[in-house]
Amino acid sequence: QVQLVESGGGLVQPGGSLSLSCAASGSIFSAYNMYWYRQAPGKQREFVATITSGGSTNYADSAKGRFTISRDNAKNTVYLQMNSLKPEDTAVYYCNAELMATSRIFSFWGQGTQVTVSS
Fold first, then answer.
1. Residue 83: left (phi > 0), alpha (psi -120 to 50), or beta?
2. CB 78 within 8 A of CB 70
3. What value does the CA radius of gyration of the chain take, rounded to a whole number of Å?
4. List of residues 6+ apart from 68 with CB closer than 8 A
5. pLDDT tens digits along 47-94
6. Residue 94 contacts by C-beta under 8 Å, 6 or more apart in sequence?
7. Full DSSP string of 4-59
8. Is 89 helix (H, G, I), strand (E, B) or coil?
9. pLDDT for 23
10. Mapping DSSP to helix (H, G, I), strand (E, B) and coil, where does residue 99 land?
């Protein structure tokens, strides 16, 4: 089992940058595919970015060209570098870890960290 703790959120002006971290513990971190999701008030949770155990990445259209996901397996940590932030990026950002076993998928979520983009 994996436990996840997000950090790095805060208040930033439009056009600014933030770097989020997700620290994992409790299982073999390097085998998990990692995801960032976000949820704004009154809206559904949406996919932001993913990085697989092999290092392949993918992004939502809203994040392409502005956000970068990375991982450091030695530190059991996943990062989300966010640049050129817009007010519509305001949301609680969640880290997710998934492992596909032979007969089931394991999925774990962090508690979230608030990102607010405002002047």
1. beta
2. yes
3. 14
4. 79, 80, 81, 83
5. 999 999 999 999 999 999 999 999 999 999 999 999 999 999 999 999
6. 6, 36, 37, 38, 39, 45, 109, 110, 111, 112
7. EEEE--EEE-TT--EEEEEEEESS-GGGSEEEEEEE-TTS--EEEEEE-TT--EEE
8. helix
9. 96
10. strand
Please say whether the beta carbons of 8 and 21 come within 8 A. Answer: yes
**Residue entry with tokens 């770097």:** 19
Is the CB of residue 11 less than 8 Å from the CB of residue 116? yes
In angstroms, the CA 103 to CA 116 distance is 40
Q: Residue 26's closest CA among 2, 62, 4? A: 2
Displacement of CA 117 from its chain's centroid (Å): 17
Distance separating alpha carbons of residues 104 and 100, to the nearest angstrom = 6
Q: Is 101 helix (H, G, I), strand (E, B) or coil?
A: coil
Q: Please count the residues of the chain.
A: 119
Question: What residue type is 49 in one-letter code?
Answer: A
